[in-house]
Structure formats: C-alpha cells, structure tokens
Specification:
mainly beta; outer membrane lipoprotein receptor (LolB), chain A; twelve-stranded mixed β-sheet; 2 helices; globular; disordered N terminus; LolA/LolB/LppX
Length: 214
C-alpha cells in the first residue's frame, strides 16, 4: 500500500530548514523564504511525493494535503489522516476505520512543522548551486549537507522560486538509496480554518475503532 507517514513528510520538510547557511547567498535566500512563511498565521499545501530507489527498482507516488497553524497541523492522504493539536496526535487509517491516539512529543523536531521555517541556523551546511527552471518557473537551487556524518540524509536539494521566494520542490537523498522528491502543487496562505479543524471528531467517522496509546 502506498502511504506517506507523518515522520517521513515532516522530517523531509524540517530538514529543509535545519541548515547552517554558511554560503551568504544561500543564507539570504533561505532568510527570505523563512520570512515569507512566518508571516502567515495558517497555510495549506497540496503536495506530491515520489519515492525512488534505483537499486530495488522502487517508484511510488503519493499525493496529499497539509494544513499548518503554529504547532498544529492536519495531514491528509488517500490512505490516512494525521492530526496534531500540539498536545495529542490522532492517526486515522482509512482502510481499517481505526484511529490511534498518542501524545505529541515537543522534543521531537521531526513532529513540529511550526519550526520548519525557523530552524536553519544549525545542523546543516548550505551552498548555492545554480538557477534552473523547475516546472517552467525560474528557481534558485540550494543544496544542504549535514554536519553529522551519521545523519541518514546526506543531501537535500531545494528549488526556491526567484519570483516570490516560495519553496516549489525539494529532493531528499538518504544513505539507504531512497530518494524522496516533494513538489508543492498548490499553496493557500491563511485559509479559513479554526482550532476545531486540528482535532479528531469521532462522530464524523461512523463505527471508528479507537486505540488510545497514551
């Protein structure tokens, strides 16, 4: 079954900003992108994830949507839905009509998308690579590499729009040969959502099985 896990998606996005930008040009672009997203109270993004591994001849595609408000987020794909209100995480598996409930760990940076545009001051080195057209749009290409040699991610390549400093796509290269490509297919700044959107309402899921792991 093709799925995207919360860990994979948030780690992929978080590593985009866990960069110590030693290249002044790269730092300037990252700062501009960070400022753009931090100015939004809420944002929603439709994305496409492609997992490729040439050794195992693996290629999988997943489409999804994520909405972020501060330390709250809601991630939807065809197979599952993950909701985090900052304290509690609900993982709803559609095929099983089952929801698992767990506590949010604020120390787990991979689970905190509110930090994704503010944490690039440590952990990774960055380098400006080139200008390139990505899906017809001119982008600045920046590559990040980890300072920790044991990091399972050895490189991240970012494509940032020259026009509006938005993050168009990025590719995460892992030591196990997996390569994850994430493309933002639609982006909505400040959509009309409230706090109730970031909580699981079991009355809307008839017969749902609840597994409380707290």
């Amino acid at each position: 079954m093709k799925r995207i896990t919360l860990f994979v998606f948030i780690i992929a996005v978080s590593v985009v900003q866990l960069a110590q930008a030693q290249d002044p040009k790269a730092r300037q672009i990252l700062d501009a992108m960070s400022k753009k997203y931090q100015s939004m109270k809420v944002f929603r993004a439709d994305f496409n994830q492609t997992l490729e591994n040439t050794s195992s001849k693996t290629k999988e595609n997943v489409e999804g949507e994520i909405t972020v408000m501060g330390n709250k987020f809601r991630l939807k794909t065809e197979d599952q839905e993950i909701i985090n209100n900052g304290n509690t995480i609900w993982t709803y598996i559609k095929s099983e009509n089952e929801v698992n409930i767990s506590e949010n760990d604020p120390e787990d940076e991979g689970m905190t998308p509110n930090k994704i545009f503010t944490m690039y001051k440590k952990g990774y080195k960055s380098a400006y690579v080139e200008e390139a057209k990505v899906d017809g749009e001119l982008c600045d290409v920046i590559e990040l590499s980890p300072e920790d040699r044991n990091d399972p991610v050895f490189k991240v390549r970012l494509n940032i729009s020259k026009k509006d400093k938005s993050l168009k796509s990025w590719v995460m290269f892992r030591n196990n040969g997996n390569r994850y490509t994430y493309s933002i297919t639609d982006f909505t700044p400040n959509p009309n959502v409230d706090n109730n959107y970031f909580a699981f309402d079991k009355t809307k899921f008839k017969g749902v099985k609840v597994i409380d792991l707290r």
